[in-house]
Design a protein that fits this description.
Largest sheet: 9 strands, mixed
CATH topology of the largest domain: TIM Barrel
Number of domains: 2
Helix content: 40-55%
Structural class: alpha/beta
CATH class of the largest domain: Alpha Beta
CATH architecture of the largest domain: Alpha-Beta Barrel
Number of helices: 15
CATH superfamily of the largest domain: Metal-dependent hydrolases
Distance between the termini: 53 Å
Strand content: 15-25%
Number of strands: 18
């Protein structure tokens, strides 16, 4: 048993903020929360972690990530730079995922952002994987990286028609195989760090046949989808051309939407489509930095909240840092709507409440909250507030006063994975050196393609 004590605890739950608090951890879960002296007396044999009155809070949850995108970092592209979202996909991302062909490439491209996530306080991710040069067994490699890093994850494979029917069929099989592997009713001792869902790219690379096949398999398995929706105008134009209706309407027609489905981005959608998302209880994930970087537009976040759509926040592979992502989510609506009053409540709810509700769809115990019975996914920050701090103003301390480098200790599933900014079970320097070696060879492949 572990006991974190002498802590300033932001629970993000019913207990609010606790001064000089303590958290008793039994195995992978939180057993009890109380005052330090009380719990030290109650659990005298527990391993004591002295927080030294640092801020203790739940780890961050990233509701949309692409671990495989790592090797694009610093990589130049041949020819003219892409000027549209469609060109970005074709010249960079689709070319990159086709050239991911080895286990080493998948493993190290995943390990890098997993490590960086730990260092910035992210304890769980919803990842969306693509490696069309190595499909079969690819999710096992990503899972191994996540388990080696000790990070909680929900994994899926990006089904798409863009590389032909053989690759399409293989990507569906990979989703089905991994979902079956993670189903609790076929495992005698379930591994609690990893879950699965069914991945799809986007309407513009999915034929009617593929949508029907995927829906049939997902329905049989009792899962939803993790799919990009109307990220660029190209997606809308393609849907209208294929089906005569817009993206959300097309996905509804094929039964892709629902309370287990994550609709990522949802930028180019109209009021009717927003109503469909609400009617189907589909979850939406906002990725502000990636959207700005790709110049695709701004998601109608205020409209989502007005309709009561469960909207979370992710990073889309742009960064492993939820600190970065939420700070942009906070300021972007102010600029977009030309109203300084908006953005605060919505970004706070996405980060502190809605991501927790999204992850609750995939795990049998709560994450993103410090409460009895929740998974012990906890971070300790070197943050000593210069002004009064409480549960009501904590988010604004985060926006204006906290950064990645304040994360001192990261605990996931009751296991300390980083303490005093040192990773305990990973040789970071060795992994980064190996990643550079693997990435250099990968870049050579990209240049010759």
């Amino acid at each position: 048993m572990k006991l974190i004590g002498n802590a300033e605890i932001l629970t993000l739950g019913s207990k609010g903020f606790i001064h000089d608090g303590a958290i008793a951890i039994d195995g992978e879960t939180i057993k009890e929360i109380g005052q330090t002296e009380e719990l030290r007396n109650k659990y005298p044999d527990a391993e004591f972690i002295n927080a030294e009155h640092r801020l203790v809070m739940p780890g961050f949850l990233n509701a949309h990530m692409h671990l495989y995108s790592t090797f694009a970092r610093g990589m130049g592209l041949k020819g003219e730079p892409p000027k549209t979202f469609g060109e970005i996909l074709k010249k960079l991302w689709w070319k990159l995922d086709k050239n991911l062909t080895t286990k080493e490439e998948l493993y190290y491209s995943a390990m890098v952002p997993l490590i960086e996530g730990i260092k910035s306080g992210t304890t769980a991710i919803l990842d969306h994987h693509a490696s069309f040069g190595l499909i079969d067994g690819s999710l096992d490699i990503i899972e191994k990286a996540a388990l080696d890093a000790g990070v909680r994850s929900v994994l899926c494979y990006e089904t798409s028609d863009r590389w032909g029917k053989e690759a399409r069929d293989a990507s569906i099989r990979e989703n089905v195989r991994f979902i079956m592997k993670k189903k609790k009713d076929v495992i005698t001792e379930p591994e609690t760090l990893t879950a699965a869902t069914f991945g799809m790219h986007a309407s513009l690379t999915l034929s009617d046949e593929t949508l029907e096949m995927s829906k049939s398999e997902a329905e049989r398995l009792g899962v939803g989808f993790h799919i990009h929706v109307a990220e660029g105008e190209e997606d809308v134009e393609d849907s209208l051309k294929k089906s005569g209706v817009r993206v959300v309407e097309r996905l509804k027609k094929f039964g892709i939407l629902g309370d287990k489905t994550l609709a990522i981005h949802c930028i180019h959608i109209n009021e009717k489509e927003i109503d469909i998302l609400k009617e189907t209880n589909t979850m939406v994930v906002h990725n502000p930095e990636s959207n700005m970087n790709n110049a695709v537009g701004v998601a109608p976040i205020l409209e989502f909240f007005k309709k009561g759509i469960l909207t979370g926040i992710g990073t889309d592979g742009y960064t492993p840092s939820m600190f970065e992502s939420v700070k942009v989510a906070y300021i972007l609506p102010k600029l977009h709507y030309k109203d300084p009053r908006v953005g605060g409540g919505e970004s706070q709810k996405m980060l502190f409440e809605n991501n927790r509700k999204i992850f609750a769809k995939f795990f049998d115990k709560p994450v993103g909250v410090i409460e009895e019975g929740a998974y012990a996914d906890i971070i300790i920050l070197d943050y000593y507030p210069p002004t009064p701090f409480n549960a009501d103003n904590a988010f604004y301390h985060l926006i204006f006063g906290m950064r990645d480098n304040l994360v001192n200790t990261t605990i996931i599933n009751g296991r300390i994975v980083m303490k005093d900014r040192k990773l305990l079970n990973i040789d970071e320097e060795k992994i980064m050196a190996k990643s550079r070696e693997v990435a250099k060879k990968f870049w050579e492949k990209m240049q010759n393609d």
